[in-house]
Amino acid sequence: MTLKVFESFSGYGSQSIALENIGIDYEVVATSEIDKYAIIAYDALHRHNMNTEVEQKTKEEMVEYLQNKRIAWDSKKEKCMLPKSEKQIRQLYEACVRSKNLGDISNIKVEDIPKHDLFTVSSPCTDFSVAGKTKGAMWTCKKCETKFNPFETNFTSKCPNCGSEEITKTASSLLVECSKIIQYCRPKFIFMENVKNLVGKKFKPFFDKWCEYLESLGYTNYYSVLNGKDFGIPQNRERVFMISIHGEHTPYEFPKGFPLELRLKDMLEDKVDEKYYLPQEMHDRFLAFPKNRLNNEDLEVIGTTAPNPYDKNGNIIYDKCTSAWCYSPDKCISTLSARDYKQPKQIVESNNDKFVSKKYEEFIDTDTISPTIPTSQGGGVCPKILVEKLGNIYPSNGQNGNIYSSNGISPTISAGTGIKGNGIGSNNAPKILIDKLNFVGGIGEKDWAGDGKKLSRNYPQGNRVYDENGIACSQTSNGGGLGGPTGLYLTDNKDINPIRLGGVFDDEKSRHQAGSVRDKEQLSPTLDTAQGGYREPCIVEKVQLKNSDIELTQEELPCCVASRGRNVDNPSRRIAGDDLEQRLEPNRNDCTNTLTSVSKDNYVMQRNFRIRRLTCRECFRLMGLKDYQIDLIQNAKISDTQQYKMAGNSIIVDVLEYIFSNLFKGTDL
């Protein structure tokens, strides 16, 4: 038997995705949604399951169709905010028709709703949420300002005090509109999801009234608060779920959670667009929190980028501007919300080489596409590419003799390019090397030329080493030396000789073999028997921080910083009454500042890190979507702002899968 579903407040259809993932035979007979972007996303994700034919209409007819269903309705402006272009209107119209969208749930005629077995209700949580307005689902009379519970007035839109029909309803009171549908259609199953605060102290009386109403219609209710992190998704997202079943049935049991294996870092993209990284001025105001202040088994808040997270005494207010918190990718992320389009969740990336160079000082790989070209050219802000110069054909090393790699791009072509005379002396055309035998070093201490240089002429043919990315040297029938007849090639493209980085006993006048520090990524120098006295090779080692996966070299180790209020235009100015800006001032002396009663005098700053927002794709992954599904949404050309909203408004698919599995598996629908 096919499960017939009415998906109200459907969003992009997470309930349908879950049903399909667990193999339930289902059909969506109707949806209800007014968000134009969510409607388009729903159509993109579920079009493969839709077989509804779309009747072609004129622009005026499509606009009338959408307005009658109050699609894109703005309650503040009290009108439908439809797209302007006919192409976008048609896209929205066709998406509505294919998804069988009945429009605004408060405007639906119950007799137009097809018969269905499962009614899903995920009404707006804004007025129940702790992070929202907490107005609840109470109705308010505009005339006498009396607030009343619609369940106590049998859902009549009249004020019990003055009889006025001018009533203000909160967004969350749309849950009440569902009661009319349930009373008329009496579906076998009702699924409801909302924020945890709905069963909190403030709104529990309303929730109890809702349950009592359903019980009066013959439903048995089961509810539980479940967290996404207990079902395989590293997001701390607590939601209350309720299953209501009509008539006789086997008692329902909610699924049990299990230990989390994934972490936020497992959901992150490998490459992230520069636009997601915080601008330098925001990054510079990053303030690290004490290690154990906001750190538990689920979450670790490393710090904040709030402009002024202090009280009047200079102490940190940890819960001020929580949207500016910066999270560790090694644990979960806090609950995604629809408000994230204003300030998406931020994470801290460690050991990112890009942090040490400014955006426009970086060279762009010629094998990739160009970055966006800004209008403010000059001043070094234009993108730079690397033109690879290989050598020169002239003893004077003049510019016209430069030889360039054929794998790169051409240098600038000058107006005087041409060949004159003997074709060499006057030729300023760019020259490239088609094939190259690339000598990288030699083995042994031969120095036949006596010039101390590492040139191929200073080594026997059999002891010369070439780059594997070039051409091969001539093959001989009886070649000698280490290379024999084939020659020697460097397969890892590293310098053949040990690299000396410095010395612990070096001074301005001399270098000492004892205490020489070598690059551990290259070759070791020859090991001799005279060990001791720091004659053994030394290397630069990375330090493993305690309780962390972060590795830092000595110069990257955390340092002590103080947060100081400084004059914006003249930091050295100390005049009472100036407008001040909090700045982090590092102590470069490898010690702390003087300990005081003010905590901001001594913070620890870890250098070599960047802070960025979560991308839209990462947010969708944290809601249980697969990458191919995210591609479908993003290919519909929906803006980042709207994608953040959709992700925050949705339900984690993995949680739904376990709930529906317990409800429908082994059940004869």
Query: How is the largest sheet built, in terms of strand order?
Result: 2-1-5-9-12-10
Strand content bin: 15-25%
Give the helix/strand class: alpha/beta
Distance between the termini: 6 Å
Tally of DSSP β-strands: 34
Mean pLDDT over the full residue set: 75
Range of helix content: 10-25%
Count of discrete alpha- or pi-helical segments spanning 4 or more residues: 11
Low-confidence stretches: 352-385, 416-426, 493-497, 522-532, 541-556, 589-599
Q: Rg, please?
A: 34 Å
Sheet with most strands: 6 strands, mixed
- Describe the global form: elongated
Describe the structure.
It is a single chain. With 669 residues, the protein is an alpha/beta fold. Helix content is 16%, strand content 20%. It starts with a strand and ends in a 5-residue tail after the last helix.
Helices and strands in order:
Blueprint: E1 3-8, H1 14-21, E2 26-32, H2 36-46, H3 59-68, E3 73-74, E4 79-80, H4 86-98, E5 118-121, E6 139-141, E7 147-148, E8 167-169, H5 174-185, E9 189-195, H6 204-216, E10 219-227, E11 235-236, E12 238-246, H7 280-283, E13 287-288, E14 301-304, E15 325-327, E16 333-334, E17 346-350, E18 363-364, E19 384-385, E20 389-392, E21 402-405, E22 431-433, E23 439-442, E24 464-467, E25 488-490, E26 500-503, E27 516-518, E28 538-539, E29 543-544, E30 551-552, E31 559-567, E32 580-587, E33 603-605, E34 609-613, H8 616-621, H9 627-635, H10 640-649, H11 653-664
Parallel strand pairs: 1-2, 1-5, 5-9, 11-16, 15-17, 18-19, 21-22, 24-25, 27-28
Antiparallel strand pairs: 3-4, 6-7, 6-8, 9-12, 10-12, 13-14, 14-15, 17-34, 20-21, 23-24, 26-27, 29-30, 31-32, 31-33
